[in-house]
Amino acid sequence: MRAGIRIKIIILSCLWALSPDTAFAMDWEAVQPYVLSGVLLLSFGALLLAHLSIVKMRRYQSRLEHSEERLRLSLWGSGDELWDWNIEQGTLYRSSSWHSPVELDPETQDIPPNRQQIHPQDLDRVSEALSMHLNQQSPYFEATYRIRSSDQQWIWVLDRGKVVSYNQQNQASRMTGTLKNIHHIKLAEERLQLFAQCLENISDAVVICDTTFRILEVNPAFSRITGKDREQVIQQPFELSLYPSRFMRDIKQALLKTSSWVGEVQEQRSDGLIYHAELSFNVVRDEQGLIQQYVAVFSDITERKTREEQLSKLANSDTLTGLPNRALFLSQLGELVEQQKRHSLLMFDLDNFKKINDSLGHQLGDGLLCKLTERLKLFPSNKGQLYRLGGDEFAILLENTNDIHTITTLAKELIKQINLPFFINQHELAISCSIGIVLYPEDGQDPQSLLRNADTAMYHAKNEGGNRYLFFNDSMNKQAVKRLQIENLIRHGLKEDFFSVYYQPKMDIHTGKLVGMEALVRFITPKRGIISPATFIPVAEETGQIVEIGAVVLRKACQQVKAWIDQELFHGRVAVNLSAKQFMLPYLCEQIDDVLQQTELPSYHLELEITEGTVMQSPTMAIDTMKKLRARGIHLAMDDFGTGYSSLAYLKQFPLNTLKIDKAFIDDMDTARGRNMVDTIVTIAHNLSLTVVAEGVEEKQQLDLLKQLRCEVIQGYYYSKPLSAEDFSQFLQQQQTPKASQIPRSVATVSAL
């Protein structure tokens, strides 16, 4: 029923639409309700369609907004800025997603846009790239350049874009792209480039290895040092060809434990040459601490090692002979003691070597030492290492032996070799040596005591005449200690003025009157009393303290004699002994001048006594010094004449005034041979116009014989022992009385020593 009605309504509606008149002809009232219902239904359907369309549009708009948001967030997350450049209108849109945005003008007619913000050094490059793209010469635009940020700093950017539309003239009208901040990437790139340049130019070789020690990369210095090309070593295992495989295993184990290894190695170049390298290995780990690579760095230290060897040779070798020197000797001796190895030490020097230097010159002496070294180097190697300790002093170390037979055999052979004559510069030289021997640990527990005791034994061998060897013993040590005590006592005595001067008269043999005196040193200490000259003078001569003692005696003697002259008690000369070391002083004459000037003693009243051995050490120099002294008005006497080896040819050249006959000849005058010897000496002196003084006269019989032999002056206990200044003043006063020469000997020697 209802379906039929709906059909009718539809038919009427159609008829009405086709012909209103016809429609109205029908029964309007019958169809009116149906027509209204259809209109309402159509309106509702239209509204429904509109609603559905709106919902669909809203969904599309939402998806578009989400898409735009994702695009914006993606650009912001990537650090890129979106730009849109309308070329014809001169507008520039930017998304401005940077934290530190670049201030660009949105209205710009520049090409490229906002060119004033681009770094001047990059502007031409950017302009050229953009021009090529706008002219369709490149598929897209891309450029890296610096641009000024809002905080006025230059930052690096990566600018990419593409033309998206053209006008009717086929010219670019619109272009879009992105701007990326790559400043941190550029800085990192510059650092990497810097590091790469450093690796390229560094003088040290750099090798990068994987975890299996296969080489991944090397720098040019590697090829320069090793002589191997990069292509030869890439993917090859890192090896040290001169070392066993376990050496590299030890390095790997060290790297696993400590992450680094450093050491000096030797390696062979591709041309076969050996070079020294200072090698260091380090571990490269990732963020999780896992080993990724190993980096080896090594430098060629061949030249440095060569220089070190040369310096070591210079430091440990004697420059004259090439032998190991004292420094190396002490080092080797210290090692033997530290390792507690039994060994023996032979120390020796040449007897009277100084005389060779002084008489024939140091150059010849150096030649002698070189010849001696060449000869001793021919010893078999099992005879120990030879060292030169300095001057003419040498040492031999015998390791792992204290066998007396072996040592004595070596010492005898050493003496035999040295005794063979040397021929140098047309001179035939015959020399000898003195050897001191110590054993470890018997003769010392440390290097210092061993060296000291060997020196002591050598000293005793020399004192016994030389050309011999002596083993060290305790008695030598006691003597050495005593010698050291005397040396310290002398030093203290000089400081505290314990040295006094005694005077022994020189008497005219015919008149018995005083004509002069000899100043003799006495060492008087508060605790030990008088120290014998035979005890302290040899020590003072060895240590050189005799020079200072001689200066004290000279000053005190001149000062005292000047006082006696002022008192008119004395008008003769005081004789002062000069030691060999004093006589060799280059400033001797000036020193004597100062003393005479300070004491105001006329030089005429001073006589200097020089031993025969002193002047014969260097006759030419002695003659020159003696002439200078004579030119000052000082008299010169040769002491102990006949005990040395004076040359008559030199004796006549010496500007002497007096010749003193040694006491040994005076004591021997009770024999015919002794008297003839004294007679000969007196005759020689008179032929040279010299005054003769006889020393050590103690008996009247000696005095009478000397008168017969025409000796002029005597000195000895017959008249007086050496007297202190106070006692000698009394002696001088007694000399002023009549017949002073007849004074009994007991009176003349009052308070004598």
From TrEMBL:
Record keyword Transmembrane present: yes
Alphabetic keyword roster: Membrane, Transmembrane, Transmembrane helix
Stretches assigned to the PAS domain: 191-236
Transmembrane segment boundaries: 35-55
InterPro entries attached to this UniProt entry: Biofilm_reg_signaling, EAL_dom, EAL_sf, GGDEF_dom, Nucleotide_cyclase, PAC, PAS, PAS-assoc_C
Residue ranges annotated for the PAC domain, each copy included: 261-313
Ranges where the EAL domain occurs: 483-736
Record domain GGDEF: where: 341-474
Protein name stated in the entry: EAL domain-containing protein
Organism expressing this protein natively: Alkalimonas cellulosilytica
Record lineage: Bacteria, Pseudomonadati, Pseudomonadota, Gammaproteobacteria, Alkalimonas
